[in-house]
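User: Sequence in, structure out. Go.
Assistant: Echoing your sequence, followed by the C-alpha cells.
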Amino acid sequence: MAGQEIERFSAVGSRIIGGLGLAVVVLVALLGVTGAGGDYHPAVYPVCGLLGLLFWATMIRPRVVVNGDDLHLHGSFSDVTVPLAAVEDVVVRQWLSVQVGGQSFTTVGVSRSHRQGVRDDRKGDATFDKSYGAIVEARLRSLAVSARDRQGVRPDSAEQAALAEQVRRTPARVELALLAVLGVALAVTLAL
C-alpha cells in the first residue's frame, strides 16, 4: 500500500565488516583476473565467489523490516513474514527472536551481547543509554501492541492464533542458486 511507513533495523557493525570482507574478496579476484596477483589456480575464483556470498548472506543480508502491519525477518538464506498483531513477544540477545503462535522465528540482523543485555536489564525502564538491541526490542514490542490495538486483536485470543497461521517462510532463491552454482564451479575447477 502506498504511504505505509517502513522501518528497517540491522546491525551496522556487521554490515561494515561484511562490506570490508566483500571489498577484499573483489580485490583478490581482480588481482587474479588482471594478472597482477600472479597465476591463480582456477578454483580461486569460485572460492572468492563463495566467500563473497557468505559475507553477503551472513553479515549484510540479515535485517528486520517493518512494512505496515507485517514484520519481515531476513536471514542468511530465508525470509520470514509475520503479521505484527500475531507477535506474542520479542527478545533480542545473541539474535532477535520473535515468538508467534508457540513458535520462535529468529534472525541475526539485530543482536546484543550478553554484557549489553545485563547492562540494559540493570537500567530497567530507562530508555536512554541502552544498547541498539534493547531499543529495537522495545520498538518492535510497541509496534506489535499498536498493530493488535488497531486490528482489535487481544493477546492469546483466537484472532491472534488465526493471524499466527499466516506466517510465511520463503527461501532466499538468489543466494541459494548462487551457492549451488558456485559449489558446482568449485567442484569442476578442482577436478581440472
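User: And one key feature?
Assistant: The longest strand covers residues 78-83.
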